[in-house]
Each structure stands twice: as structure tokens, then as C-alpha cells.
Amino acid sequence: MQFRAFLAASAVALGLASPGLLHAQNLPPAVSGLDLQDVKVRAKPRAEYGRNVYGTLPSGAKVEVELDGQDLIKEIETTRRKQFSVADVRSLIPAAVLNNSAFPADATLEKIEFERDGRIELEGRLASGKKFDAEFRADGQLLDFDTDD
Fold it and tell me: CA separation (Å) from 143 to 37, 121, 125, 133?
């Protein structure tokens, strides 16, 4: 019985010691679909600004998922230098973008951003190792594609 009391007190103390850090609960389906491991959720100072979700993708890359106030994904970015594969986030990318011949399906990503107007911005490295930035409309139209030469 004393051990239970100790565990309960420890849990409360841990919760008080890390304000703003929430357990991975009530995640939106888009985030749940990423199959993140070791998930931590940190509320932003004002709820209308959203929250940040930290976790490890199936590829092993540690990422931060920034959610807006409506729990929509604003961006996913690596928290360390290890990039993530397109396969890790494929479920979030519209089919029209994936089907565009310019879409770098074999690239690794440092960041993917989802803009309010439907644009999707990618930053990462092509299979050749070159850094790239690309921007697509949700309907699949390529807006910009730059590489470091």
C-alpha cells in the first residue's frame, strides 16, 4: 500500500516539475497516423496557438510536429540532423502532389510545411545528396523547385 502511495506522489511531482508537458493523449488522427513513438506533447503558452508534439518516426528520426489552434499540422521538422523519409509522412501528402513527376519520392526530408492555403513546402536532400526546396499546391501543381548546385 505504501508503494502505491509513493507511485502516486511521484507521478504528481513529475507533473508539477514539468509544466506545459502533457502526455500523448487526444492526438489528432493525422498525428496518430504517423505512428510516432516516445510521444510528448507540449502546450503553447496560449491554447489558440496550438501545441507541439515530439516523437520518433518509424524510420528512427526524431521530429517536432507543430499543430495550430485547430490541431491541424503546420509543420514537421527533424529535431536532430537525421532526416526522415517521404514514406514517414506520405499519408499527409495529397495524391495529386505525390503523382507529380517532379515530386522527389526518394528524397529525405528535414522539414515539411502545410500552409493554410493548401501549399506544401519541402526541404531536404535528393537521392543524389543535393539539398533541395520544393513547393507544391494541393492540386499537385509545382510552384518552385530549387537545388544547391
Answer: 34, 10, 18, 11
Q: Which CATH class is domain 18-147?
A: alpha beta
Task: Please name the residue that has the C-alpha cell 508537458.
Answer: 21
Q: SS3 for 120?
A: strand
pLDDT tens string 63-104? 999 999 999 999 999 987 789 999 999 999 999 999 999 999
Is the pTM here over 0.85, yes or no? no
Cα 146 to Cα 48, 80, 109, 126, 141, distances in angstroms: 34, 23, 14, 11, 15
Domain positions in the chain are 18-147
d(CA 26, CA 4): 27
